[in-house]
């Protein structure tokens, strides 16, 4: 049986050349132990492609992002490799989501013209994000707000990064921050809700579902609420990091 999804994200790195306070992937927390191993390898990209073809997956768009994807050492090879999925009809279009600081034009000029033309570049300038700042370290459960999934599930879709598949970008980021690796999956998920039946629990620790109702929405100090603070503290106290990769 084939799998159809409007959108999905490849989080090819968590590294970024900006460290925005409002980063919902927590790319500004460079001291977290899992951070330095966040680059996806070319072998992982090949494995993903194989899964997509074998499981007859069809994606409207595949967003290549990070972190800042343009600073991944193999971003050219990744874009070239992913073009196979466009040619095979498994992916409608590949998008490169950049903060606009990196020289993405130089990257596109260094890959075959046909692939560069087919790659849609979207700039997601941090300035715009900062203007709409929402502190993302506020856990709804700590604030007595309801835990509810948000539009990210359909608008952005599942993500794959160096460790595996996650239901959504912000949710994956929150799960890692809290040390909860039980949300990672190693095979392409056929259905989000079947694959992650406890997703709503995770939403209780993710600000996205309550974006419009969060207090302190104009604050920029990013003080974490209790649950997220406990997760970060656990990591920063020096727990060793050993986690299977995709
Ligand atoms: S530019 Fe984007 S990915 Fe980088 S830290 Fe800022 S919000 Fe995060
Ligand atoms: S609220 Fe967070 S965890 Fe829940 S669906 Fe939205 S992004 Fe994912």
Describe the 3D structure:
This protein is an alpha/beta fold. The protein has one domain: TIM Barrel (Alpha-Beta Barrel). It is 31% helix and 15% strand. It contains 10 helices and 6 strands, in the order βαβαβααβααββαααα. It has a 6-stranded mixed sheet with strand order 4-3-2-1-5-6. Helix 1 packs parallel to helix 2. The site of one iron/sulfur cluster (SF4) has 14 residues, from helix 5. One iron/sulfur cluster binds next to helix 5.
Our count of domains comes out at 1
Q: Main sheet, how many strands, which sense, barrel?
A: 6 strands, mixed
Q: Could you give the order of the helices and strands?
A: EHEHEHHEHHEEHHHH
Reported CATH architecture: Alpha-Beta Barrel
Distance between the termini: 23 Å
Strand percent estimate: 15-25%
State the low-pLDDT regions, or none: none
pLDDT averaged residue by residue:
91
- The order of strands across the largest sheet is 4-3-2-1-5-6
* CATH C-level label: Alpha Beta
User: Can you count the beta strands?
Assistant: 6
CATH fold call: TIM Barrel
Task: Specify Rg, calculated over alpha carbons.
Answer: 18 Å
Please supply descriptive tags for the structure shown above.
10 helices; TIM Barrel; 6-stranded mixed sheet; 246 residues; alpha/beta
Compact summary:
With 246 residues, the chain is α/β, with parallel strands linked by helices. Helix content is 31%, strand content 15%.
Which secondary structure elements does this structure contain, and how are they paired or packed?
Blueprint: E1 3-11, H1 42-54, E2 57-65, H2 75-87, E3 91-98, H3 104-109, H4 113-118, E4 119-123, H5 126-131, H6 152-155, E5 159-161, E6 164-166, H7 169-177, H8 192-195, H9 199-203, H10 226-236
Helix pairs in contact: 1-2
The structure holds iron/sulfur cluster (SF4) (2 copies).
């Amino acid at each position: 049986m084939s799998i159809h999804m409007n959108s999905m994200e490849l989080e090819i790195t968590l590294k970024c050349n900006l460290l925005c306070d409002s980063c919902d992937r927590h790319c500004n927390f460079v001291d977290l132990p899992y951070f330095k191993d966040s680059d996806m390898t070319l072998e992982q990209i090949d494995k993903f492609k194989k899964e997509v073809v074998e499981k007859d997956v069809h994606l409207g768009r595949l967003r290549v992002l990070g972190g800042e994807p343009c600073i991944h050492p193999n971003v050219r090879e990744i874009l070239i490799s992913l073009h196979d999925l466009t040619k095979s009809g498994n992916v409608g279009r590949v998008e490169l989501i950049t903060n606009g600081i990196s020289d993405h034009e130089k990257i596109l000029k260094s890959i075959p013209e046909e692939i560069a033309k087919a790659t849609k570049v979207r700039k997601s300038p941090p300035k715009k994000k900062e203007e709409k700042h929402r502190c993302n370290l506020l856990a709804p459960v700590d604030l007595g707000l309801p835990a509810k999934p948000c539009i990210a599930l359909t608008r952005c879709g599942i993500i794959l990064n160096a460790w595996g598949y996650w239901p959504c970008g912000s949710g994956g980021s929150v799960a890692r921050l809290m040390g909860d690796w039980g949300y990672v999956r190693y095979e392409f998920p056929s259905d989000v809700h079947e694959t992650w039946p406890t997703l709503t629990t995770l939403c209780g620790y993710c600000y996205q579902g309550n974006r419009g109702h969060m207090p302190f929405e104009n604050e920029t100090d990013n003080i974490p609420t209790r649950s997220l603070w406990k997760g970060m503290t656990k990591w920063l106290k020096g727990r060793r990091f050993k986690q299977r990769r995709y």
